[in-house]
Amino acid sequence: MKRAALFDLDGVLADSHHAFRLTLAGFATFHLGRRITIADLPTDVAIAPRDHVLAALGVTEPLDEEGWDAATATATLTARVFPYVVPVLTELRAAGWATGIVTARTQRRVPWLLGDDIRSLMDVIICSDEAPLKPAPDGIFLALDRLAVPPDQAVFIGDMRADVLAGQAAGVHTIGAGWGFTPPEQLADAGADLVLNDPGQLVPTLLKWADAGQPTGHRKRS
């Protein structure tokens, strides 16, 4: 039976922590007319909603998406795809798995972070201009529909509480990416079926799930 591994993008496939902070600081600097540095950002910047962070800095007007894009495009030059991504995707696809992304990025912003080599290893990429943001499950449902894979044969790997909740609402298995934006214990508390701290564990974990027909290690950290 066909199975699917769906991934969040930022923090899971790409190390964009610093780029995200640079985007916020640059955007706030432009709109406030004074220098905002990464040191000025709130401590919960990695997991707080973007609008909340900007409001805390004093940016209260409606978000200027073109301005945000300009800041993002520049800051993304500092981001990198994690070294595990190509070998893991290649091995999963060789084992017969479909692969995809469900991300809060727009279609325009995805190529700024992922090159053709990575995108070619994805069977589907669902962006926020195609489906509501997580924790709504719509993006996962849309990806599975395009892949023709039922929810119980799919897993979603994410690094935010919203990712876990979206996966649960969609009826897929959920893996918390403990190497991402959110501390592993918070992903476990959110109800992830499994939390991995090492992306090198992804392939053996997913192949084990496929053999067993269901996830093992429910809501445990590894």
The computed structural class is: alpha/beta
Count of helix runs: 10
Please tell me how large the radius of gyration is. 17 Å
- Average pLDDT for all residues: 95
Termini, distance in Å?
27 Å
Per DSSP E runs of 2 or more residues, the count of β-strands stands at 9
Strand content: 5-15%
Query: Helicity, in percent?
Result: 40-55%
CATH class identity of the largest domain: Alpha Beta
Question: Order of strands in the sheet with the most strands?
Answer: 5-4-1-6-7-8-9
Biggest sheet record: 7 strands, parallel
In sequence order, what are the helices and strands, one letter per element? EEHHHEHEHHEHEHEHEHE
Quaternary: single chain
Global outline: elongated
CATH topology grouping of the largest domain:
Rossmann fold
CATH architecture of the largest domain: 3-Layer(aba) Sandwich
Q: What is the fourth-level CATH superfamily of the largest domain?
A: HAD superfamily/HAD-like
Care to describe what's here?
The chain has 222 residues and is α/β, with parallel strands linked by helices. The chain folds into two domains: 3-15 and 80-221, 3-Layer(aba) Sandwich (Rossmann fold); 17-78. Helix content is 41%, strand content 15%. The protein has ten helices and nine strands. The chain has helices at residues 17-32, 50-57, 65-75, 85-94, 110-113, 116-119, 138-147, 161-170, 184-190, 202-212; strands at 3-7, 14-15, 80-81, 97-102, 124-126, 154-158, 173-177, 194-196, 220-221. It has a seven-stranded parallel beta sheet with strand order 5-4-1-6-7-8-9, sandwiched between helices. Strand 6, helix 8 (161-170) and strand 7 (173-177) form a beta-alpha-beta unit. Helix 1 packs across helix 3. The longest helix has 16 residues, at 17-32. The radius of gyration is 17 Å and the shape is elongated. The chain starts with a strand and ends with a strand. The mean pLDDT is 95.
